[in-house]
Design goal:
The protein is 0% helix and 49% strand. By secondary structure, the protein is an all-beta fold. A hairpin with a 4-residue loop joins strand 1 and strand 2. The radius of gyration is 26 Å and the shape is elongated.
């Protein structure tokens, strides 16, 4: 005799007796695996020995030469997670820099881990930044544990955002993310 489901279709390869189980039953219980005391997870040859769930970090705005820089933050948040040697970092900033002697590239400090590869890149959304003539796009670039913002185009060599693009007294918004190896 063939086993039938609730709508009368045969279930091939079925053995045993009983009724079709609907989507709401039975209640599944996740077993306790002792992960709270585990020091690593082995995937049949490679071991994941380090994991950090989403954790807050504080991105700090500065310039290569900060001079008399003062920064007022409307938004200053960041998060990161780490799975093995891969770090995913993100930041959201709303800030107004005030300065007369600051110069050089805009930098964000405070990244929780340094990159093993200089210039790990990621996307960035910005508001109120006026790019230099001939540049069309910007990437966030992590070198060591400092994040810079690189303007580029197909017709120009890459160049960092600096004091001519980040003017004193203007409020800027940046939202960025970078995934990199440590």
């Amino acid at each position: 005799m063939a086993t039938m489901n609730q709508i009368g279709l045969g279930l091939s390869g079925s053995t045993g007796t009983g009724n079709f189980v609907g989507a709401n039953t039975p209640t599944l219980i996740t077993p306790v695996l002792g992960a709270a005391t585990a020091t690593s997870i082995n995937f049949g040859g490679s071991t994941l020995s380090s994991y950090i769930a989403t954790t807050a970090w504080t991105p700090v705005v500065t310039f290569a030469t900060p001079g008399d820089l003062s920064v007022n933050y409307a938004i200053q948040t960041g998060n990161y997670s780490k799975i093995g040697s891969i770090v995913n970092i993100s930041g959201r900033l709303g800030f107004t820099p005030t300065y007369t002697t600051a110069s050089g590239n805009l930098n964000i400090t405070g990244a929780p881990y340094s990159s093993v590869i200089n210039n790990s890149f990621g996307p960035v959304l910005m508001q109120n930044v006026i790019l230099s003539v001939g540049y069309t796009s910007v990437l966030a670039a992590l070198s060591g544990n400092i994040i810079a913002f690189i303007q580029y185009s197909s017709a120009q060599f890459a160049s960092g955002l600096s004091t001519p693009q980040i003017v004193s007294g203007v409020t800027y918004y940046f939202d960025f993310t970078i995934t990199y190896n440590i």
